[in-house]
């Protein structure tokens, strides 16, 4: 199997109007972007905003200017969409109080710009660890009753990788469970 | 710095200062702090819907995009101008439709972990199927029970584990004919074949046992259920063992004895000081007789027990069963209902029931159910 294309290669293909490259980018980031949005705005809005981010990427590809790593670019596009929602929507008003509170504790020094960027990228990388490109597929196949081995065969992973992923999920569920259920 | 919508508009237009930009960036990043993990099922549903929309957008509308926005704007602007109230009503209705779509889980959501750590998903075995796995086979009976067949001849013990996730219940017939129902989020470790002189299983969580009597030369073979907190010594009998938190053990038939502590084995000095007779319940260190022993196994037949259960406890069981967080006003926590509710009901049906019976109302936002106290009722 060939190593997967880098984001930057895919973007280059996408600029040559290759829809398949766009689809690969979409599959790579949709879960993580959706989680990022769902944790910040109502779920239905989150879905709209992520849809919007991808459609803007594809529709405006001819005048796209990406001056940084693509992963940072696409999450910043989403952050921008979120601010747009807050600025325009009726419901956005309630967010302004939270911004005011936040501003009261915020002190700016441009020396911190790099640190802020690093924190942002750390958050994204943490999201991508769990909600990477195969998150949706693995979970779906598990629900459909495929064994770890079958999933591993189909996706070209080692069985151990899949098993580890499902065990950590199980462990997480169990830890949550013990907190929730005592009687 | 003035905090208002204008600031956000300038941020949008890239006309704000570096300081303002840093503020808003950091603020949006921080909005997720303390928000709960996203429920996998809800996320999958959103992803499926997103996939469909992206496909549709790619297929139907290759490059043009003005039109959709014009249409959207022509609908949205009047709503924003005149329809605040109706929009709110609409959104509330939409949220409740989403809630109504949450079905009760109808899968066992359980796996058998074999001795080589391979997992067998119980839901993937069809009723009546025999699955050959290495040295032995598994059958799924019409009632969903799993049973081992074609056991290996040699006596080397093989231990497997049956594990249920949240929202799953599973049942198994052990090698001696004893039956075990495993409640959600629990695990049973058992040998696929018992040795001749004793029978032992380990339990985490909750299970109901119907232990078969076994004798060799007139001598009864004991059956032990071990847990980190207690060991139960059993002769033929029916009982429920709940080790989710504080041990709660309810005896329906027969006789069982409980160890005081959890020392490893009988040889290491484990003794049984407490004996339960039918209808006895061991809970919080005491044995009491119950007039309604069956309520302890309602879960096995697919019900939530309500008798003598505070709403706070019921809500915890619902969260667990439907895998969805519920935030409840503390004032409701001590309310009590009577009876039982089928677990196959949708969560919204149960919430409807609660809000009829109690001074409560509910709402559903961002994947969280809010159960609120309402005085007027």
From TrEMBL, chain A:
Single biological process term from Gene Ontology: DNA-templated transcription initiation
GO MF term list: sigma factor activity
SUPFAM superfamilies, A to Z: Sigma2 domain of RNA polymerase sigma factors, Sigma3 and sigma4 domains of RNA polymerase sigma factors
Organism in which the protein naturally occurs: Sphingobacterium humi
Top-level division of the source organism's lineage: Bacteria
Pfam families, alphabetized: GerE (PF00196), Sigma70_r2 (PF04542)
Keyword check for Nucleotide-binding: no
Keyword annotations from UniProtKB, A to Z: Sigma factor, Transcription, Transcription regulation
InterPro entries hit by this protein: RNA_pol_sigma-70-like, RNA_pol_sigma-70_dom, RNA_pol_sigma70_r2, RNA_pol_sigma_r2, RNA_pol_sigma_r3/r4-like, Tscrpt_reg_LuxR_C, WH-like_DNA-bd_sf
Protein name: Sigma-70 family RNA polymerase sigma factor
Lineage: Bacteria, Pseudomonadati, Bacteroidota, Sphingobacteriia, Sphingobacteriales
Residue ranges constituting the RNA polymerase sigma-70 region domain according to the UniProt record: 26-90
Recorded family membership: Belongs to the sigma-70 factor family. ECF subfamily.
Keyword Transport: no
Domain HTH luxR-type, chain residue ranges per copy: 137-164
TrEMBL record, chain B:
Keywords: Membrane, Transmembrane, Transmembrane helix
Keyword Transmembrane carried by entry: yes
Molecular function (Gene Ontology), one example: sigma factor antagonist activity
Domain Protein FecR C-terminal: 303-370
Ranges for domain FecR protein: 161-256
Membrane spanning stretches: 69-87
Annotated InterPro entries: FecR, FecR_C, Ferrdict_sens_TM
The protein, known as: DUF4974 domain-containing protein
